[in-house]
């Protein structure tokens, strides 16, 4: 059974069909990429799967159980984490605190115990901070553990957002354009990190415009165009398919 199953999902905004009858299956432990020209519906598809949008039609299942219409916090409790195209970093906090936010579902949120400063809460906070520091080392940000987020370079903030998503301890991680705006060295670092995450047992679903990264990393690739599924296959199948070439370069090319 696939970890993620999307069956005939569609989304319409005021009569505009942003996603049309898209189906896909993502097996455990793979890197699955979604590509397509700008406006193809890739991020809308991500938003449907991760509970930000409610599908107009279709069904989404995780581990065989329907999660269609579940809000993001319920999906997070099921082990679904994501990053965004545009950075969602709390700039008024330090880097490690940002990562700790990702572990909020594993913290004791009892107001009474918090009000009386129970020792167990303080101990748990220390444990979560240690986990956050370890995750920062995992993503290559050990030199920023004590830094403020607003003083970090853009490339480091992209990896910080990935570390925060990993703090949830997800089994399914959605990365929305993790290499956007990065220089070649930073892009290579993210490429290596994504493979490292997958090797740790986390299933990765990726939207990315950097075709070199996609072709290098992906076990399976879904190509979208005008909200529809154009084709799906391996890197070799995708890169040589005439419909994909036409979608990216134009039919004449």
Features of the shown structure:
253 residues; alpha/beta; Rossmann fold; 2 domains
How many runs of DSSP E, i.e. beta strands? 10
- Largest sheet descriptor: 6 strands, mixed
Shape, per Cα inertia axes: globular
Strand order of the largest sheet: 6-7-8-3-9-10
Series of secondary-structure elements, N-terminal to C-terminal: EEEHEEHEHHHHEHEHEEHH
Radius of gyration: 19 Å
CATH 4th-level superfamily of the largest domain = P-loop containing nucleotide triphosphate hydrolases
Count of domain modules:
2
The span between the termini is 40 Å
CATH C-level category of the largest domain: Alpha Beta
Account of the protein in words:
The chain has 253 residues and is α/β, with parallel strands linked by helices. It folds into 2 domains: 1-79 and 170-253, 3-Layer(aba) Sandwich (Rossmann fold), CATH 3.40.50.300; 90-168, no CATH class. It is built from 10 helices and 10 strands. The strands form 2 sheets. A 6-stranded mixed sheet has the order 6-7-8-3-9-10, with helices on both faces. Helix 3 (95-101) packs across helix 5 (119-138) and helix 3 packs parallel to helix 6 (154-166). The longest helix has 20 residues, at 119-138. The protein is globular. The model has no long low-confidence stretch (mean pLDDT 90).
Write a compact overview of the structure shown.
The chain has 10 helices and 10 strands. By secondary structure, it is of the alpha/beta class. The longest helix is centred in the middle third of the chain and has 20 residues, at 119-138.
């Amino acid at each position: 059974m696939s970890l993620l199953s999307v069956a005939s999902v569609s989304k319409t905004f005021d009569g505009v069909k942003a996603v049309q009858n898209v189906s896909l299956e993502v097996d455990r432990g793979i890197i699955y990429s979604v590509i397509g020209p700008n406006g193809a519906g890739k991020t809308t598809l991500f938003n449907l799967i991760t509970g930000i949008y409610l599908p107009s039609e279709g069904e989404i299942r995780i581990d065989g159980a329907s999660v269609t219409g579940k809000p993001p916090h319920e999906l997070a409790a099921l082990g679904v984490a994501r990053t965004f195209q545009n950075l969602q970093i709390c700039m008024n906090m330090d880097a490690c605190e940002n990562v700790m936010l990702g572990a909020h579902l594993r913290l004791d949120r009892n107001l009474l115990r918090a009000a009386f400063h129970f020792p167990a809460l303080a101990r748990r906070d220390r444990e979560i901070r240690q986990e956050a520091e370890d995750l920062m080392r995992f993503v290559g940000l050990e030199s920023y553990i004590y830094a403020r987020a607003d003083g970090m370079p853009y490339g480091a903030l992209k990896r910080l957002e990935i570390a925060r998503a990993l703090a949830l301890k997800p089994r399914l991680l959605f990365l929305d354009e993790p290499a956007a705006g990065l220089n070649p060295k930073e892009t290579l670092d993210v490429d290596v990190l994504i493979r490292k995450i997958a090797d740790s047992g986390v299933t990765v679903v990726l939207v990315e415009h950097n075709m070199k990264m996609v072709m290098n990393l992906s076990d399976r690739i879904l190509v979208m165009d005008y909200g529809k599924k154009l084709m799906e296959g391996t890197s070799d199948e995708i890169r040589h398919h005439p419909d994909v070439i036409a979608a990216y370069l134009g039919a004449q090319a």
